[in-house]
């Protein structure tokens, strides 16, 4: 299969601090501060990639020597934390901004959806905006004419086609905007997190349309999202960006799991006058701290709390989510409430055993909710720990090779009765 | 991938002389839709709609007639004062509108430019074409005035130079466009330059023969009148007046000079504009 996009040694630098402040008067002020030996009054705290380290230079590499290839017809998910360089990459691919060094070459027309409804004018009717927006995205007038019916149909706004879009509900507005972009005849579709808007049904429709675009029509799709469920549904390949470099690229499931593994921080910090949450981690049966176990062995989630004042209200809940961010279970301390109420001051470790053959292979992560016995919430510490369950191959019987489907991994004893 | 296989590249540096005019051609539909948008949205947002197009030059003409014509007693080359001023104002307004709107094109369109790519040159071009509508309305007003004064038997005559009108129109548009694009590049770095442009254009009008004829300027300030003569808008307005009203200093040399300056500013403007356009999103 031929290559649709080839990225070679792509870098993008942003300058921190001494960019023009925007006005001459401010620049003069800055100059005056400098000659008096004062600090620059307009020094910008830029969006550094490694936000914690203080760099010597004031240049930040939002992307650094990126290399990758995307094959024609691939649906590629680009994931990474905030500031990893995802948006910069998309901006360069969309030609909104130029790279500092490097080169991208490609084949086919690019339709880029960094935002829906770019250039919509509130005073113009739906029809007029379809044409305007389509033309901004690079469509010719007759092309839009040909697709008009399809676009209107997809957006479901037939009745309001000649109404100014300022009278549209926000949902209609977004539907129309996405419909225009989705019907652009392009070989490559670039989509930023536009699906964050609109109701669930419409999001599903959008995902469906994008899936149709990539799988049905063989077009290349690049998709940035923080929603792992939609990425996994739509994409078969992925690129994980971290601090401006490509950390992994390959099969989407692998990319998503490496993204989550990057996440782990064992220290949990919450403190009030009554108690503090110190630590949350997992161990295996041998009391070794682990991030992964097989589904055939027990896992222990351990929470370290320090009780400062004897507190009958203390409680917590461990919420376990799967890789798709779906809540699987909540384990809370309501049923041991009386024991907690009588806890003396000092540090206490809560050990929560997770029986074997519960979770299927995959990535899981934990939110820690700190709450009172009446259920009032003090604090939620999101994504405070990730663990991986590997399959022990027992239920496969040496026959089934693919990853095991389903959310849970019951391995019941199957009895065979002879029936007369 | 073979070199032949890809059909586009994005690179860090682009050639200065790559003006991307073929891309602009490919997006010509967008140009018309933007013009249409400007026109329709202008209609819909105001009560008086296109009447505003009339009111502004009308009032300016009245005020100029009173102040400069009657109070200050500046010569109008023997032409009826309102006609003289209106000819200057109509031409000047078109140029000034193109210049003003083009010079803030990055600021006004930062939202769109930051989200989607299309040849940026389309935006200033659409401004120039949109302003043409307004210019057309003002031209109609001017022609009505001409008819009115003709019926009154005022002294003026249409000359052959009226045939140069299309050229004058193109020169005004491109001069405003070229200068505007150069300024737009500067205003991306310094926003406050926009204020300077606002009243700078006003002052510039006084260095153009809008409220006085070139002949008077040369007569009264023989040592400084070169400032006015080297102003590329002066030959354009003088030729405009000469064509429609039969008075004004017309010469092929001065018109040739204005054309040269216009082409030069336009080319420089496009080059600078294309250079700034590539990275302006990062600094806005």
UniProtKB/TrEMBL annotation, chain A:
For this protein, the record's Gene3D superfamilies field holds:
abc- transporter (atp binding component) like domain (2.70.50.60), P-loop containing nucleotide triphosphate hydrolases (3.40.50.300)
Identify one Gene Ontology CC term for this UniProt entry: membrane
SMART domains, per database record: AAA
Record's keyword terms, sorted: ATP-binding, Nucleotide-binding, Transport
Task: Outline the extent of the ABC transporter domain.
Answer: 43-268
**CDD domains under this entry?**
ABC_KpsT_Wzt (cd03220), Wzt_C-like (cd10147)
SUPFAM superfamilies of this UniProt entry?
A: P-loop containing nucleoside triphosphate hydrolases
GO molecular function term, any single one? ATP binding
Keyword flag Glycoprotein: no
> ATP-binding: is it a keyword of this entry?
yes
Q: Which family does it belong to?
A: Belongs to the ABC transporter superfamily.
Name of the featured protein: ABC transporter ATP-binding protein
Automatic annotation (TrEMBL), chain B:
Q: Is the keyword Hydrolase assigned to this protein?
A: no
Query: InterPro entries annotated for this entry?
Result: ABC2_TM, ABC2_TM_bact-type, ABC_2_transport
- Give every ABC transmembrane type-2 domain span: 48-276
UniProt keywords (A-Z) are: Cell inner membrane, Cell membrane, Membrane, Transmembrane, Transmembrane helix, Transport
Q: Its topology with respect to the membrane?
A: Multi-pass membrane protein
Q: Which Pfam families match?
A: ABC2_membrane
Biological processes per GO annotation: lipopolysaccharide transport
Gene Ontology cellular-component terms for this entry are: ATP-binding cassette (ABC) transporter complex
Q: Where are the transmembrane segments?
A: 51-71, 83-100, 121-151, 157-181, 193-214, 254-273
Domain of life of the organism encoding this protein: Bacteria
Report the locations given in the UniProt record: Cell inner membrane; Cell membrane
The answer to whether keyword tRNA-binding applies is no
One GO MF annotation is: ABC-type transporter activity
Sequence similarity = Belongs to the ABC-2 integral membrane protein family.
Q: What is this protein called?
A: Transport permease protein
Write down the species: Pedobacter paludis
